[in-house]
Amino acid sequence: MKGEVEMSIEKEEEEEEEEGGVPYYWSGPKSYYEIGVVRIGDRIIETTTSDYHFVVKKWLRYIDRNYRKRRGPLVAGLAVFRGLPRPPCWSWRKPSGSPSNPNSPIRAIALCLGGSHCLLYQDDGYYDFRTPQGLNDFLSNRNLAVVGIGVKRDAERLAAEWGIHVAHPVELRTLAARAFGEEQVWKANLVRGRIMIKGLGLEKLAELVLDGMKVGTKPARVVEKDWGEETQNEHIMYATRDAFLCFEIGLRCLKKIGHRT
User: Fold this and answer.
1) Is Hydrolase one of the keywords (predicted)?
2) CATH code reported for the domain at 7-256
């Protein structure tokens, strides 16, 4: 595959998709959700962005109907995004630190199913955060393999911070090592006179697993995005990309090691 794959995003106009007389999404104001079409090479992913529980629940119900009937393990790609800690409501001080720090609180998650649909759910920003029950019910299914980089740590943080139980998290690099060999995924590097073993990042995993697919490095302005603040199209596009790649890499590896999908 020559060169990097191109990416783009377009926002869809508000429409209702009816199935058996039931709208796909709640037919209220467009401010409750946004739908974007993200193109990654020749693949098209519909991404729904919302911070409302009932939209998430309807999205999961709609998508879930298409995957429960499939044989073999269900697969979901998961990417989490962090933000700065919120100061107490009475404090005038601005939070400090780096949003990308692994110890920063989770502010958003992207979930990809089927390689064609993605949900981007954001913390609603209120101090009395409530667990999105629909997500909890969906991710607590042990038949659902939730794949991602560092996903086991992310699952622990989601349980502690959001009250969400991820029943079957599967580390993407471990899965890729089983499918393609340890030496292909874990690389030795000399750092300050010491040999350090480091696993491939998401972009390099995509190149290894997805037939040489080349995806560009995420810009620093996106890496350091505070996901507790408003998102722009670029942020949604890269969040979709991360969840999509996790799904595609995980699915390809499961097929290679002999799981029925």
Assistant:
1) yes
2) 3.30.420.10
